[in-house]
Amino acid sequence: MMLERLRRRRSENGGGPAAGTPLSQTRLIDPIPIPPGDPLETVLLSAGGPVGVADLELVSGTLDAVRAAGVELIVPLIGQGELIGALYLGPRLSDQPYSSDDRRLLGGLAAQVAPAMRVAQLIREQQAEAKERERIEQELKVAALIQQTLLPKELPSIPGWHVSAFYRPARAVGGDFYDFIPLADGRLGVVIGDVTDKGVPAALVMATCRSMLRSAAQKHDSPSKVLAEVNDALVPEIPAAMFVTCLYAIIDTGAGDVVLANAGHNLPYMQTEDGVVELRAAGMPLGLMPGMDYEEKRYTMGSGETMVLTSDGITEAHDPDGEMYGFGRLMARVARRADDMVVALVDDLESFAGPDAEQEDDITLVVVRRSHSAQVSAMAFGAGELLDSFAVRSEEGNERAAVTRMAEAVAPLGFDRRDLERLQTAVAETVMNAIEHGNEGRPELEVGVEVWATDDVVSVRVTDQGGAREIPEPQTPDLEAKLAGLQTPRGWGLFLVEKMVDDVRSTSDGSTHTVELIMKRKGALR
Is residue 15 pLDDT above 60, yes or no? Predict the structure, then answer.
């Protein structure tokens, strides 16, 4: 408790000043705080007015300090039953004791000073709170900037694979993070994690952990060794009472093999034809103690299977009645196929929590799906070379953009002009069908295009989100049958495409539909 300073005055001769004689000395003593619970505090609160120091018989270190400073009278400043300060007075200039009139005058003065002093204290507290809020806001801005800088700017584009992610912090700055790490031999490292705490400390730990993970990932082919190295490096760096849950998986995008290790994070789920599989691997969170071992889990993803990684912001969300979303509900939603698993999960969570629910924790999702087209390409072309991979929105006219980019990708191959025109026609028709029929013209859905090449062929794969719908068989156009209402134009486009290229392959994995256009490089420069 801070106490107001006291001016203690004495005349040079020790007696009362003569008329017109100025005060000869004025001395300030340093504030002497009265700690809460000190016996002197109890006495001052109950006194109801000024208290003579000579009259006090207490065992109090504060009272000893007051006596050592030469204080003779203490005037308590009390507001709303609380001791907010005290006036310390030394001997009178006349060396006479303080009279009852003096004490009444000082008591009245204290009654006037205490409210004013309380107001001043409140103002200072408000100013301090405003500065603290400003400091916190600035800290959050810095932390948010750090976090935005570190999250991936774009998703990996891998032939035969579809990677999607979703991140929404509960506040200005969250503790969740995710990352994708390109590795040698067509492998991909996938990270999802959660740093305890929020603000700049958590953001800095996130940045440190991400850097350590990326460094260790280049040195070790084993996820368990990566997490063990990061854990040992993080222990001496992380603030007290903080830790990081983290899951790290390495995906062989050629064979579909997945190897993962888990440092106390939510279990990943694998959606298969037979239901949902939990991929369990034990391990302590990062940063708690050195020398930890991490178990590895291995799994081979089949065509059409989907791996779902989540943070606890999903499972620990509540509905208006206080019921938790939970792992069971999450697994049930993952078990149901969806064109876009991220959208399906977020929609289900928001429907469960209700429109007015306040988000309790950060929500992070990473979804990796292996499409059937990956196996088709492997069978048709072996390794091959990916010339380009891109996507266009399902909007009229975007087939022209796809054709232009495809032509740019194959331009170095020296295609014969006629062959290139035929391939362009086939690609335009295929992308247009994917936009109109596969994705039903829904602009939020994308059509994926991949351009591959070997020494013998060029392949263009066009993938839409209509894998659950039946693929029409190519029909030979019959104008008279059409006029008679016996034939529709559906299937005519596929007939045209088949005439433009050397081979057409159509595949579906239940959620996506891929048409593969194959043209021999008979006109290419060798």
Answer: no
